[in-house]
Amino acid sequence: VGWGGFGKFWAQAIRSIARRTTSNSYEMTSSQVGGKGEVKITARDSQGNPINSTPKEVRVSLPDGTFKGMTLTQTGPGEFRGTFDATEVGSYIVTVAEDGADRSRVSTSGFSVSYPPEYRSYRTNEPLLKEVSSITKGERLKDPSQSVRLAVDPGFSVQELWAFFVLLGAVLVPIDVAVRRIALPFGEILAKALQWFRDRQEVQPKAPAHVEKLKSAKQRSGSATASTPEKGYIAPDKKAESPPSAQTSTGTASSRLLEAKKKRKVGDD
Q1: Going by C-beta distance under 8 Å and a sequence separation of 6 or more, which residues neighbour residue 51?
Q2: Residue 148 DSSP symbol
Q3: What is the distance between the alpha carbons of residues 53 and 30, in angstroms, rounded to a whole number?
Q4: What is the pTM of this model?
Q5: pLDDT tens-digit profile of 129-154?
Q6: Banded model confidence at residue 38, pLDDT cuts 50, 70, 90
Q7: Is the dihedral angle over the CA atoms 156, 159, 161, 162 positive or is it negative?
Q8: What is the Cα 235 distance to its own chain's centre?
Q9: What are the backbone angles phi and psi of residue 229, rounded to the nearest 5°?
Q10: CA atoms of 81 and 29, how far apart (whole Å)
Q11: What is the pLDDT of residue 119?
Q12: CA 249 – CA 256 distance, rounded (Å)
């Protein structure tokens, strides 16, 4: 300290190792956005005109003491932007070497990532919780098991209906065009439909074939009985109204009917 060149020596030493002052050609900001470090640089010359040449050397100092380069993208006249991973806790320093013969002039910016936000402790906002509880008809939980109880007011859900109405419109448009373009006699069609319905109701159901056969046989047996004379009756002396062949056929039909009844009765027994 008593040496005469002490002050001069240390002044020169500090001046030689210290960073040169910048020429203020770069305005740089850096921040953390969603786990990424974002750098924005605005380059202007001494007259305020934008510098469109991309900075050639941009380095990021990481919390572990290492460095890595970063690529910038031009987003406008004299404006550049770049990102890098910033998920570790610590400080990030971004340096940009200014263009020119002397690259020892640099612009510096940085930010720090503190303790993860999810581990921060906050005080309970009692007034806000009370307001939310009064609006939603909630209540203060005194037992952890109450957190899984059934909701008093389950609420409602909203479902979009535009797809249904679009489909309905697509179906109704052809029908609307058909009604306007095609003239149909709806009165005559309705009258014919009513007449067809009435005619169908007036048609009597046809009896089965075996019922028709029984009816015809019964009629034949009745006519044969009426043509047979009773005892003590003297027929008038005139020709029979029906020929002998007709009476024979009638008698034969009666005998067949009686035989059929006897067989049916035996079968039932």
Answers
A1: 25, 43, 44, 45, 78, 99
A2: G
A3: 20
A4: 0.37
A5: 889 988 987 888 888 887 887 776 66
A6: very high
A7: positive
A8: 100
A9: -75, 145
A10: 10
A11: 72
A12: 11
Residues 168 and 176: their CA atoms lie apart, in Å, by 12
* Phi, psi (rounded to 5 degrees) for 28: -125, 140
Buried b / exposed e across 138-154, counting CB within 10 Å, b at 16+? eeeeeeeeeeeeeeeee
Closest CA to 28 of 68, 72, 89: 72
DSSP alpha helix (H) spans, 3-89: 6-17
**Separation of alpha carbons 157 and 152, rounded Å:** 16
Please state, in angstroms and rounded to a whole number, the distance separating the CA atoms of residues 259 and 202.
39
CB atoms within 10 A of CB 86: 23
Q: How far apart are CA 44 and CA 46, in angstroms?
A: 7
Please name the amino acid found at residue 222: G
**Residue 104, token pair as written in the block:** 């020892």
